[in-house]
Each structure stands twice: as C-alpha cells, then as structure tokens.
Amino acid sequence: MAKNKNFSASPAKGSVFLYGRHPVFAAIANPSRQILKICAAAENAPELKKHLTANQKDNVPLQIVDRKDIDKMLPREAVHQGYAAQCKELEGYSIEDICALADQRPDCHILVLDQVTDPQNIGAIIRSCVAFDTLALVIQDKNSPQETGAMAKASAGMIELLPICRVTNLSRALNRLKEAGFWILGMDGYAQTTIGQINKAGKTAIVMGSEGKGMRRLVEESCDASVKLPISPKVESLNVSTAAAIALYEINRR
What we know:
With 254 residues, this protein is α/β, with parallel strands linked by helices.
C-alpha cells in the first residue's frame, strides 16, 4: 500500500468510480467485478486489506490518500466515507439471458423501467429489487443513465447482485418476455384493479414509467393488463422508487 496522490480524477472509458463503504465492499465481494484500483483514507486501509484478501483480490492496487484527494475524484455531493474504487463497468445481460434465468424459476418476477432517468432513483429501485427477490431489471438503453457511482451508492452496493438488461426496443423485449411465459403488468394510476388483487403465481413482469410521463403508448399497449397501487386520492402519485418498492413487495407475496 502506497501513499500516492497522483491518480486520475476521470475514469477511463468503460470504467466507473464507486464510492462509499457498502458499494466498494460489495464490488470487492463480486467475482464478476474487475477492480482497477482502490483509493482509501488511512483509517480504512486495514479493513479493506482484509476484505481484499478474503475475496482473493490481493492484487488490486490500494492507494492511501487524504480524504480531500478522494473529494477531487468524485462529484461534489458524493458521500464517500473515505472509500473510492475505479472499476470496469459490469457486463450487462441480454433479454435472452433473462429468459434463460426464468426457465429455472417457474414463479418469478422482473421489473421493467420505461423513461426512468434519475441514477439515484434507479439505484434505490435496484436495492428494492434485491430486497424482494426480483429476478432482473430491464431498462431501455436509450435515454437511461449508464452505471454511475451515485447509482451504486443509492443501491447500497446491491447493483453487484442484480442482473440488469438494457434493451434497444422495450416493446419488442416485452413481447419476447411474453413468449417466455411472462404475464406483463403495467403500473397505471388510473387502472381499475389494484396490484394486490391479481393472481401472483407464475412469471410476472411489472412495467413502470416515469412519475410525470408514465409509460409510452407502445409500451403500454404491449402490457397484458394494468394495475395500480391502492393509495389515497389525495396523492396523485408517488416517487417512482417508492412505488417500485411497494409493487415489488406486493408481487413477492406469493
């Protein structure tokens, strides 16, 4: 471990800076995550070294730096706790990969996001997906954020545990899921049926749009049915990450 302040403040293409204790430790524990280097405050180094050894990643360069040097690497609002790791982005899953995973789980659910663009919302949704045993997350590649440190931080490191599939055409992906035996449910505040009233057996895909625009027309038309959350009429809508957590909790009550 070396004291070294001469590191780049900009990650190379295809890499990302993760920060915070949970995201960095989760990345170390993930065999699929390639870590290029870790920068840490001196007081964090002993625990990090033990974690690297326990996960057979002793070869990862560990640099001891001042917290202010980590500040310079990251966005101004980043709460890093004295931990930062430059990593290769995780490899994504294809829709065929998701269908193959579902073959092994006759009762499972996935979440599909349409027009959800905020990295912190997506990170919070990823955390809920893992909490409620969601098989995978499907998002449209265009107009959706790539993996970021803010997303990983909001997920509390759970981004390491959830298969994430980016697709070019969301409607086409939903049709492929139908072929694989999924029942497609679109979340719509004007639906007549609440999510608690549906049959939860089998394979289910829940589709959620953004708070403002909701699902796009073609995506909505690809759904088999629409459902809503049973919220008070005094409230027009919930934050998408909150709504996702409630929907996933309900669909997981099999």
